Amino acid sequence: MTPELALDGIRILDLGMFWAGPYAGGILADLGAEVIKVESCRRPDPLRIQARGLYPHGDPGERSWNRSGMINDRNRNKYGITLDLSVPHGKEVFRRLVKVSDVVVENFSRRVVRNLELEYPILSQVNPAIILLSLSSQGIDGPEKDNVSFGPTLEQIGGLAALTGYPDEMSSFASYAYPDALAGMLGAGSVIAALRHRRLTGKGTHIDLSQRELTSCIIGETLMDYAMNQRVHEPLGNRDASMAPCGCYPCRADDEWVTIAVGSDREWASLCRVMGRADLINDNRFANVLSRWENQDELDTIISDWTRDQDHYQVMTSLQEVGVAAGAVLTVAELMDDPQMKERDFFPVQTHPEAGAFPCKGKPMWFSRTPLRNDMPAPCLGEHNSFVYGTLLGMTDQEIHDLEEEGVIGTMPTATDLQFT
Amino acid sequence: MSEGALAGITVIDLTHHIAGPYCTKLMAGMGAEVIKIERPGSGDPARSMRPFPGDVPDSEKSGAFLYLNTGKKGITLDLKTASGVSILGKLVKDADVLVENFHPRVMPGLRIDYQALSQINPTLVMTSISNFGQTGPYRDYRAEEMTIMAMGGFMYLGGSPEREPLRLGFAASQYMGGLAGFTATMAALHHAEQTGAGQHVDVSLMECLAASHFQAIEQYVHTGVVQNRNRTMFVFPCQDGVVQLGMQPHHWPKLTQMLGMPELTDDPRFSNTMARREHADELESLILPWMLQHTMVEVYNTGQALGLPIGYAATSKDLYESAQYRARGYFVDIDHPRAGTLSYPGAPLRMGELPWQHGRAPLLGEHNEEILCGKLGYSREDLIRLRDRGVI
What we know:
CATH architecture of the largest domain in chain B: 3-Layer(aba) Sandwich
Number of domains of chain A: 2
Strand content of chain B: 5-15%
Structural class of chain B: alpha/beta
Radius of gyration of chain A: 25 Å
Helix content of chain B: 25-40%
Number of helices of chain A: 17
Strand order of the largest sheet of chain B: 3-2-1-4-5-6
Helix content of chain A: 25-40%
CATH class of the largest domain in chain B: Alpha Beta
Distance between the termini of chain A: 46 Å
Strand order of the largest sheet of chain A: 3-2-1-4-5-6
CATH topology of the largest domain in chain B: Rossmann fold
Number of strands of chain B: 12
Oligomer: heterodimer
Order of helices and strands of chain A: EHEHEHEHHEHHEHHEEHHHHEHHEEEHH
CATH superfamily of the largest domain in chain B: Crotonobetainyl-coa:carnitine coa-transferase, domain 1
CATH topology of the largest domain in chain A: Rossmann fold
CATH superfamily of the largest domain in chain A: Crotonobetainyl-coa:carnitine coa-transferase, domain 1
């Protein structure tokens, strides 16, 4: 018996590019919705072209645009079509798709939305029940709505970067593009909530999600300190406002580390015993919360001397056994090989017709009755044009052929040097 | 009944701290009735979390608690008593969703795990958010936010290659856990409302981070290269903070224009991305003087007007003063009987014409009478007895 899918029967047009939009579409696809990734040959998802060398074994192959690692990881379980929305015929076909779909997802700049005529009033006139999810940097209105941004700059203007840094250096923030991941995750859930609203009222809705605002939401408790006390937080490095020891300690191998955080006297005593330093438990310098806090430089040295002789997993397991929050700092290689990740089967394998078989990122949610699906590889460019235009829209072979001749649809990119913005 | 996409939905909220409460805060924002259950006496441990007005601790004035629990009703129940569990059972019977973020042993230990609760209400969606998930060798591990960042692979990528890895300065996994809990619950609820069948949802904070890597996983899978910490390019101090440029090749002439240094446009030292990386130190020394003469927001506005993707490291103060946030009405004033009126970060999105519900956080046990008497039919005398015996 095929397992039930949570979002069975929902059709979604995913115009997302890069990560935020495709991530939302990808979550909805894994949950069982019928998600159609819509690109154009003139401007496919830029990650097909600017793949940063992330091809299987680094080899772009004959049709590199179908072998991009980031594209294939992010777009599992989706159908793929091409459609040039910048020309009148393309816009007309798109409206026919909107008529038979439930949701449209986009994360374009507002300028592109205007050019492609994807604003909500236009789409809802075509289909009053349509749900439009707009994931933008700063929202659909306001003086900065047309500002351009990337993951790193969004992390800055949303407030994450100013909170992160070594205490003795200029704030430094690795580029995680975290706002994209946040927006994709919440975007997917908000679409499902909007579907409920539609079930009850018959009405569609426009979801306007500003990545910057969502980013500020996840530092809410820090912002409240400004609201209450006009306080601006400075980065603490790996230290904590009150817990000590709390830090990242070197282990035996080169560039191998473990984090340890001790919150209570009980945990302190446990740590001392595992280190073979029961003599420190009641040492005046470290016996209570305040003294540990004041003497943490010394404490960090003592702990480093101990961790330096071991590997990070060893430290983690020996301390976790006695209830101390220790965590090995895992590289991505170690993460994929980690016992917990393997037990949970977190990296589903995709078998892609042009890129082969490889593990992909899972989605962080498990369901007892409606498991996530993993039955379709990411689509090649325009792979499902016949299915969507022929079967879903009922076009004749001649009509589809004419669209190809006009260059409105196709399976090869025509742009070669894409700009991100 | 309130408006909102989740109007008519009842959520039983057993959460505490950040991850669980953020999940249910979103549901309250969309119009669900969220009944937060706290232990009598001390309540949610987040009530002890900073900040406090004037740094004076007060369990009804924690900024973290007030922010994370907007729009919820609050009752107290001691779930270690048979009476407490019985009352919970009555609430679950007519509820749609239950969310909890205890260590995985807790709910089975109290005999209120999914197996038990689904007997009472087969359509119930129960969402469990935990550090490592409900199963696996790390299931019972202890974790702070930093622990999850280390084990989720985020920390190895943060900071400088020449020293120890650096953690992110905010609760990244806990908030993502709240979002994942929200989205997963929506999916399960969607299914339950159409089929009558509930289920158990399991969210792991470690997996939340593992799923949120930008390219490290794909890079390792396809090329075997293990992403490591590297020096961030194009980050500059200015008069009052730090700015960052997201440079693509076609931005270079716009940058030289902004700096008033057109002669650099065709300078061979900086003619392409590789060359700019090679001569990074020289480039920085040329750009720095201009940057130091301007504030972050000046650089941001000037650069953006030219089409440069610039960001600035906004502090809390900068965010409260942001022109964009003011125009969008992002911050909202919420009044509270003990904490007074404060300006809170507002909704994470707008849903068409549906207003986001910005009600205040509940006082401890504030809605005991409304829920226990009004909803469940207990008498006032019952409440007194329950209180005497420490059940509520």
